[in-house]
């Protein structure tokens, strides 16, 4: 997508492996999340992003993902339009690309996280 930062799955895996500091945000629906998440992800449903926009205005890197990268791209564009997207990255290809590249998925119960 034009006008937003993007990251590919290999770079995300490298960041995770190297202990890079960033937030990982899953914006998918409950039904999608039940199929698995990327380990370490926080769940913030897409419709709640406007209510939580102040959480994204700092210097911390934020990687946002959905199923295919389309909705998370829209969220990154929304954040950029509202002055909070300079450190937001869309995961190109979403969780589909992550899984197809052979990277593991987990469940919220396994990582001890609950949905927002």
CATH topology annotation:
Oxidized Rhodanese, domain 1
- What percentage of amino acids are in beta strands? 15-25%
Helix content: 25-40%
Quickly count the helices: 5
Secondary-structure class? alpha/beta
Broad CATH class: Alpha Beta
Spatial ordering of strands, largest sheet: 1-5-4-2-3
Residue windows where pLDDT falls under 50 for at least 5 positions: none
CATH architecture term: 3-Layer(aba) Sandwich
Shape: globular
What's the total number of strands?
5
Give the N-to-C terminal Cα separation: 27 Å
CA radius of gyration: 13 Å
Question: What is the string of SSEs from the N terminus onward?
Answer: EHEHEEHEHH
User: What number is the mean pLDDT?
Assistant: 91
At the fourth level of CATH, the homologous superfamily is Rhodanese-like domain
Domain module tally: 1
Sheet with the most strands, sense and barrel status: 5 strands, parallel
Description of the structure:
By secondary structure, the chain is an alpha/beta fold. The chain has one domain: Rhodanese-like domain (Oxidized Rhodanese, domain 1). It is about 30% helix and about 15% strand. A five-stranded parallel β-sheet has the order 1-5-4-2-3. It starts with a strand and ends in a 5-residue tail after the last helix. The mean pLDDT is about 90.
């Amino acid at each position: 997508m034009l006008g937003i930062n993007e990251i590919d799955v290999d770079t995300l895996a490298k960041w995770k492996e190297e202990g890079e500091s960033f937030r990982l945000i899953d914006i998918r629906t409950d039904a999608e999340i039940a199929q698995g998440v990327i380990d370490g992800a926080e769940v913030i449903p897409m419709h709640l992003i406007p209510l939580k926009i102040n959480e994204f205005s700092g210097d911390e890197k934020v990687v946002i993902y959905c199923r295919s990268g389309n909705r998370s791209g829209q969220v990154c564009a929304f954040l950029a339009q509202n002055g909070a997207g300079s450190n937001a990255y869309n995961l190109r290809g979403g969780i589909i690309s992550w899984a197809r590249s052979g990277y593991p998925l987990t469940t919220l119960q396994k990582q001890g996280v609950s949905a927002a």
